[in-house]
Amino acid sequence: MKLKLSLSILALAAFTGVATKPSAPGISGDYLEVRSCDVYTGPCFANGEMGLAGKEGMMVWSVRKGAWNGVPLDGLKVIAVVRADATLGDLRHQPRSGKAVLVVDETASPQQREALAGFARAMAGDLIREVAEVKVAPVQAVIGMSGMKGCASVKAANLVEITTRCLAELDCVCGNEETFYPPLTDVVGAVPAYTELASFEGNGLNLTWELVGRRSAFVGQFTR
After folding, report:
1. What is the mean pLDDT of the chain?
2. pLDDT at 218
3. Each residue of 176-196: pLDDT tens digit?
4. Buried b / exposed e across 178-207, counting CB within 10 Å, b at 16+?
5. 110: buried, middle or exposed (CB in 10 Å: 19+, 13-18, 0-12)?
6. What is the pLDDT of residue 45?
7. Are 208 and 132 a contacting pair, CB within 8 Å?
8. How far is CA 149 from CA 48, 130, 144, 159, 168, in A?
């Protein structure tokens, strides 16, 4: 009886070992977004912008480690510059679709560039319903630097430049501010931040822009 029981346990263990496949490696890193509307604000300010402004945004993924569709992307970066069909507010209740210019890290191989673009589209969903252009550029990104969660600096040649800092008490205008909108995509530990500068000088979206002095950023991490 003991022999039969032992054999049954061994058989079950062997079956479990064959049936269980190792999970595919995930991907994780640092995330930054800015919009042309405030995300940390009072309801009166948000309602004043709704439908009139806030259609533009930029999302930055800086990969620390991991792979996408089997392609390793450690240390690489991708930026999505988006123009949506309406104000980029709370996408959970008011979904938006958009057109984007993607900026992929010039240090990536052709296969990695394709994977970076696919990853950005998967993370952004309908915000990148259409890719207007894919640009290759040197991308420098420091996000959440020196323990300051709201501080970030991103530059991609002469296409994109972003600097943010932590929000301060003096950034409150009406005294009724809150994190009015959530991030545009899945983020871990997101904190709202102050946009000192966010500029886009590329083609593909039929406009360029420069934002200065807005409470319009999020800094956090991503994992998938």
Report:
1. 87
2. 97
3. 788 899 999 999 999 999 999
4. eebbebbbebeebbbbbbbebbbebebbee
5. exposed
6. 66
7. no
8. 29, 32, 4, 25, 13
Place of tokens 């301060």: 168
Is 128 in contact with 100 (CB distance < 8 Å)? yes
**Region at 206 (left for phi over 0; alpha for psi -120 to 50; beta for the rest):** left
Dist. CA 103–CA 10, nearest whole Å: 53
Q: Are 195 and 211 within 8 A, CB to CB?
A: yes
> Rounded to whole angstroms, how far apart are CA atoms 33 and 206?
21
Which tens digits make up the pLDDT trace of 130-162?
Answer: 999 999 999 999 998 656 689 999 999 999 999
Distance, in Å, from the CA atom of 150 to the CA atom of 190, rounded to the nearest integer, reads 9
Start-to-end CA span in the chain (Å): 47
Q: What angle (nearest 5°) sits at the alpha carbon of residue 18, between those of residues 15 and 23? A: 130
Q: What is the DSSP string of 28-63?
A: EEEEEEEESS-SEE-HHHHHHHTTTS--EEEEEEEE
Q: Which two tokens stand for residue 25?
A: 């490696």
To 10 degrees, the CA torsion angle through 48, 53, 55, 56?
A: -120
**β-strand partners of 141:** 154
Residues of the chain with pLDDT below 70 are: 1-25, 44-45, 47-48, 51-52, 145-148
Both structure tokens of 190: 């997101």
DSSP 8-state class, residue 200: E
Do the Cβ atoms of 98 and 58 come closer than 8 Å?
no
Report domain extents, the chain.
24-223
Taking Cα atoms as reference points, which of 77, 82, 169 lies closest to residue 119? Answer: 77
Dist CA 100 CA 86 (whole Å): 14
